[in-house]
Specification:
- This protein is α/β, with parallel strands linked by helices and 328 residues long.
- The protein contains 11 helices and 9 strands.
- The protein is 41% helix and 17% strand.
- The longest helix has 25 residues.
- The chain is globular, with a radius of gyration of 19 Å.
Amino acid sequence: MAVREAGPAAPGDKTPDAAAWAHQPERSNMVALRFICWLALTCGRRLTRLILHPICLYFLLFAPTPRRHIKRYLFRAIGPRAGWADGYRLLHAFASTVLDRVYFLRGRMELFDVRISGQEPVEAEVMSGRGAFLLGAHVGSFEAMGACRQHSSDHGALRLAMLMFTDNAQRISSILETIALPELRPHIIALGRPHSMLALRDWLDGGGLGGMLADRTLPGTEDMGQRSSNLTLPFLGQPAVFSDGPFRLAALLRRKVFFMAALYAGGARYDVRFEPLVDFSERLADPAQREQRIRAAVEAYVARLEALCREHPYNWFNFHDFWLEDTH
């Protein structure tokens, strides 16, 4: 399993690179990754899950940087009582979702109990041919959202593209892409490329959905024609930095934005949720009003993420210096 030791995501006045995490390689071993994928497909989910325990224990003992960030997060999410057992539980949930990616990408939906709520407004946008933005976070499993394709068969398959920076996770992404069934292989629109904006617009105009994880500041948004900025907002009782880039992009393309999360509920259960976040489909002529709506949308996103972290504290897999405490 890959655990990324990512650098801090900070505004320019605190660190030279506002999104250093995007340039950090994941901590993984190609041989180990291939072995785990082979074991998962050969021996099945129940047996393969047994090796998650020593893997999680290894990272808990020998990955001090992620362990430090996990401790800080859990202290804020569940309180001072958070201890080693909570850190282990968080790592095990993360490892479980990584393992399950193999089965989701192979179409093995019969292995899971996936419950979906709030998808009707999203399907309505797809049926209208306008597409929409789905903004999530490093919460739960993005691949579990593939279950929505089966549940939406009566309305046509949901076409979902993931907007992401691909440079720091090429190893595990290449392996998982190799084992994925062609029809389940994720469509990726790489950010930070000269034509990212045009590719995204065409995708949305075709009734596609653009998925993005918005809980990290974003590098390279100037390549997409965005004048994004970082906002410092209270998050779990402490100021944290969030980018308004995804919301500016949605406002520029005049689309609705939904909050998405596929929460790991333990065992074989996943809870997929969609919630309306903001509607940018109406053109706003007043720049000041537009800025207010963008900021309000970011604040609504942060509030929703905070509530989710308190409700399901072992589902947020953002193992880096989120509150910039190592830079002080």
